[in-house]
UniProtKB/TrEMBL annotation:
This is G-protein coupled receptors family 1 profile domain-containing protein. GO terms for cellular component: membrane. Belongs to the nematode receptor-like protein sre family. Keywords: Membrane, Transmembrane, Transmembrane helix. It comes from Steinernema carpocapsae. The chain crosses the membrane at residues 77-97, 109-130, 136-158, 178-199, 211-236, 268-286, 306-323.
Length: 393
């Protein structure tokens, strides 16, 4: 049997993790509302300004030791290392975005996407290394969830920008309505932040039958947005290729913008497909976990760890994909990372570019050195021959 004990918030926060949950939350009422499962990532207290009374169901020792886990500590160590290294790549990519290789609106959207990846890595490191069940960890979890959602629906913004660039092909390159991209990014953060808030709070304060449908609806909306973005992106890319073959008689600016749309779509396609795979996998795993009522089992542990690891790999590899798929960015990156080799080549070129007088002097020195060496060899041979004749006599 399990024992029920009423404790305060401060006492609950200092309890060992195995004793913290499941909880019954009472807010000025005798009716208890069950919180998330004992080992759910949503197991955080909320609204500390209210007078809360927690009823803790303390499991027996035999019950607490029967839960098995499939998480690999080695994978978490690798995940921490990648999360620490990923911001370096992301910052480098953001520095490259200062160059006008993309349209200003697209650069703003890519910078916003990079910022979300950076916050994703920072929050994930804190969750892995400093998880203590305190109130501030709930806010860190919300930031992390909002960044995950920004990866899921980021394809919709990029596809929308490419759609506008295709519709306004004649004058889009000259337009500088950067504030539209900024407003779209702010709206995206508001939507993702709201989703993250409701996902965490609903799982904490409501019964399973209450929060299951709203949360599943939110995730379905994000998945539909991602599918819509990828679909629009592919259609726009195909349309631009067809227009490039037809509009041969158009002016040079028109054809240049179509060519830029085709090139940019090709560069972003790989990243958007990776984003789409992550979105589908996230929807599958979250649907499975909610259907299992966030209970602890090795299947959920394995699926969750794979998803977290895939997000970390995305944050680490996305900047590389953006850089490697763009010819000019790739050339600049090679120059930066092979600067030592370039310096050596430069020194060799300087040797080759010496003035004629210096080259003549160097050749003369080589000639006289060889002549001196030949004379010395001749003297040695003459001396040896004379010594041999004297010895024979």
């Amino acid at each position: 049997m399990s024992a029920c004990v009423e404790i305060s918030w401060s006492e609950w926060a200092t309890c060992p993790a195995v004793l913290r949950t499941p909880l019954i939350l009472k807010i000025n009422s005798n009716v208890g509302i069950p919180l998330a499962s004992p080992h759910s990532p949503f197991a955080y207290p909320i609204w500390p300004q209210f007078s809360l009374v927690f009823t803790m169901i303390q499991p027996n020792e035999s019950e607490a030791n029967t839960i098995k886990t499939a998480k690999l500590p080695v994978a978490e160590y690798i995940e921490v290392a990648l999360n620490v290294l990923a911001p370096i790549w992301i910052l480098y990519f953001m520095c490259l975005l200062r160059r006008p290789f993309f349209h200003l609106n697209l650069r703003i959207l890519l910078a916003n996407f990079s910022i979300s990846l950076m916050f994703l890595t920072f929050s994930r490191v804190i969750i892995l290394l400093a998880y203590n069940g305190q109130m501030w960890m709930l806010y860190i979890s919300m930031v992390h969830d909002a960044c995950v959602f920004s990866i899921i629906d980021g394809a919709a913004l990029l596809a929308g920008e490419r759609l506008v660039a295709t519709c306004l092909v004649d004058n889009y390159e000259k337009s500088r309505n950067w504030w539209i991209a900024v407003v779209l990014c702010l709206c995206m953060w508001c939507v993702n932040g709201t989703f993250a808030y409701f996902v965490d709070i609903l799982a904490l304060t409501e019964k399973y039958e209450v929060y299951y449908s709203p949360i599943l609806t939110m995730f379905s909306i994000m998945l539909v947005m991602n599918c819509f973005g990828v679909g629009v992106f592919l259609l726009v890319n195909r349309y631009n290729k067809s227009r490039w073959k037809v509009d041969l008689q158009k002016n040079l600016t028109h054809r240049y913008q179509i060519k830029e749309n085709i090139r940019t779509s090709k560069q972003l396609l790989i990243a958007l497909l990776v984003d789409f795979v992550i979105s589908v996998y996230f929807f599958v795993i979250i649907n499975h976990r909610m259907s299992m009522r966030f209970t602890k089992n090795w299947v959920d542990d394995t699926l969750s760890q794979i998803f977290d690891f895939s997000c970390t790999l995305s944050a680490f590899l996305m900047p590389y994909l953006f850089i490697s798929s763009h010819p000019r960015l790739r050339v600049i990156a090679k120059k930066h990372f092979y600067r030592i080799k370039r310096v050596n080549v430069k020194q060799q070129n300087e040797e080759r570019r010496k003035p004629p007088g210096a080259m003549a002097q160097q050749e003369a020195n080589v000639y006289f050195n060889q002549l001196t060496s030949s004379w010395d060899n001749a003297k040695v041979k003459t001396r040896n021959a004379a010594t041999n004749r004297i010895g024979k006599k």
